[in-house]
Amino acid sequence: MVGHDGRMSTVAEFTIEPFVEGDPGPHVRAAIAVAEAAGLAVDVGPFGTAVEGESAAVLDAVDGVVRAAVANGATRVSLQLTVAG
User: Fold this and answer.
1) Can you tell me the distance from the alpha carbon of 39 to that of 57, in angstroms, rounded to the nearest whole number?
2) pTM of the model as a whole
3) Exposed, middle or buried: residue 16 (CB in 10 Å: 0-12, 13-18, 19+)?
4) Residue-range domains of the chain with CATH
């Protein structure tokens, strides 16, 4: 996942619970808003959300994404990072 400019890319995949298919609650919407505000590409899937960008930007945003989810009612946040290097 090395970008066209030679920088490392990272994907962070989140599953934020409680999970209701087709109806992301405020805990999910808040997490997505933080990621978007950080300038990350956001892909909302049926079972989770992935954000992608330059490694430093993703790693800097992860704390805010998790905090926003929990502050807005998440009962569990599962996170997986994939770093290209």
Assistant:
1) 8
2) 0.84
3) buried
4) 9-83 (3.30.70.930)
